[in-house]
Write a structure and sequence with these properties.
By secondary structure, this protein is of the alpha/beta class. It is 41% helix and 13% strand. It is built from ten helices and eight strands. Helix 7 crosses helix 10. The structure holds guanosine-5'-triphosphate and magnesium ion. Guanosine-5'-triphosphate binds next to helix 5.
Length: 287
Amino acid sequence: MNENKTNINWYPGHMAKTKREIIEKLSLIDIVYEVIDARIPYSSKNKDIDNIIKDKPRIIIMTKYDLCDTIKTDFWEKYYENLGYQVILLDLMNNPKLNIIYDVTDKLLKEINDKRKEKGLKERKVRALILGIPNVGKSTLINRLVGKKATNVGNMPGITKNLEWIRINDKVELLDTPGILWPRIDNNTVALNLASMTAIKEEILDLSKVAIYIIEKMLELYPDVIKNRYNVTNEEDIVDILDQIGKKIGAIRNKETDYDRVYQVVLKDLREGRLGKVTFDTEDICK
Ligand SMILES: Nc1nc2c(ncn2[C@@H]2O[C@H](COP(=O)(O)OP(=O)(O)OP(=O)(O)O)[C@@H](O)[C@H]2O)c(=O)[nH]1
Ligand SMILES: [Mg+2]
């Protein structure tokens, strides 16, 4: 047996329920805004989505642009464009350029509206479904589009609990949805990336596994960040590395490293952006 197998078979009932409810509402929907996290543009894309939305017009919205490694993002933007998607990159915290969403929506729905006009029908109000895995910024996007707090947000998975219509103006209505994953996450790296970026609770994989993955991934992709932040000079052995981090952050109990504390600090530092701008999905993940 492979010791590293994460064995993620975590598809709680509420996700199955949400999926069913989305499918029920689909006939009302004109366009889907599929929200993914720019730090994990491959891992955070729901592998079940084509089964859910079939051939509805779709825009991929990559959020958290302020937190990602933009050189890697360029690759992923082109990757999805080559697959035929429209891709929009957004920093929802500092500089959400939202008009582009409406421009692309108008472009994608032009054909439908032109047909309606030919038949003498009025242009239809646009109903957009906001879909994505937990914690990618779906509700934050909605709040930005509305221009005020219309729905709850928070940096942990599972904040939105129910499907909820939100009116933007006379022309646009949005359907916010709880984050959903797909039934079996059989790619270890994808599972660990999801836990690293708080799309699934870290306990599901085990805190130590996720934190050690983050440290090893950072040492591979952004070694100076870890070395400088935590005074890591000797990186031969993971236990040594944890001890050095423990010493630097003062996670010592009874003269021994408090490993749980080290894990928690590393996770928190990554999530709160203290480990710099990072993207964990490298090109080889989709091969
Ligand atoms: N730095 C940064 N943080 C963001 C961005 N977009 C969202 N966030 C943060 O990400 C966290 C999750 O945002 P939510 O809008 O609650 O995510 P969600 O997709 O609705 O999550 P669920 O309802 O749990 O499925 C919050 O802490 C947001 O402030 C962004 O572009 N940049
Ligand atoms: Mg939400």
